[in-house]
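Researcher: Re-running this chain for the archive, since the previous output was lost when a drive failed. Same request as before.
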Amino acid sequence: MTVIVRDVRAEDAEGFARVRRAALPFMLATGEQFRFDWAHAHPDGHERPLVAVAEDGGIIGTAQVRIAHDAPEPGIGSVNVYMDPAHGGRGGGSLLLRAAEEHLAEHGARTLYSWVLDAPENLAWAGRRGYSPSRSAYFLRLDLTTAELPPLRTPPAGVELLTAEDFAADPRPLFELDALTTADEPGDVGTELDDYAHWRATTWEHPLFDRALTAVAVVDGVPAAFSAAQTDGLGRYNSGMTGTAPAYRGRGLAKLAKNTSLHRARAAGRTEAFTGNDTGNAPMLAINEWFGYQVCAREVRHVRTLG
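Model: Regenerated structure tokens:
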């Protein structure tokens, strides 16, 4: 059966999300999210989302393709290919990868990174195409309908618990906190958040970002730690980022914020909580184990140098 690869169209968003949910059931994916992401892509990222389409017009595979314009070093690109498990073995993944690599090379990428689910067939597929394993990460899940969350506790003196919505008039302090915590997040490629306008348009206004469930620990009037919440309207909740500014670490503020957010999520009717952690991020893994999260999958970051 013939499979073709083409650029996405606005009407592909629901099919794109369906494939992503089938391939990665532990990540949030909605058509609204992808329409938003495509419309707000940074021009320096040269993003080119692709779809693999079967003869009947149905979307059976997707690829997210971009230049890491926010990395400290130039020439880095990323491509993440996902196929609907019901339509594997038809060559769609190879076609998507080839088109993605050609696009990234045209825009100056020399080092390509790709996340690959930790299954023998997936790792072998990446290896045959010149990709070598690098660091790894876990997907974790918590059943909010049965979990015994740690009890809520009164914040220590000088600490106030707010929501992101409390910063609606001026979210810049949360941008600054996000930039601080993102700067030292484990990863192969560093990220520098220095464009407030783009952050506000693409993070603050993102359709998955749930301001009411995002908890912020404020110390003496300064945002010190936060747990960003994402929700998809389907009962699922994801911790998009949990972090503490370096000057306030070691005081349990990340735990305080995340516990507050999880309690709010359950009270709001969310039934499943997901998060992801680098396998080397022992402090955050310990926090999530304390909450009762369980590993549900592992993915391996792969790298290829274009020569």
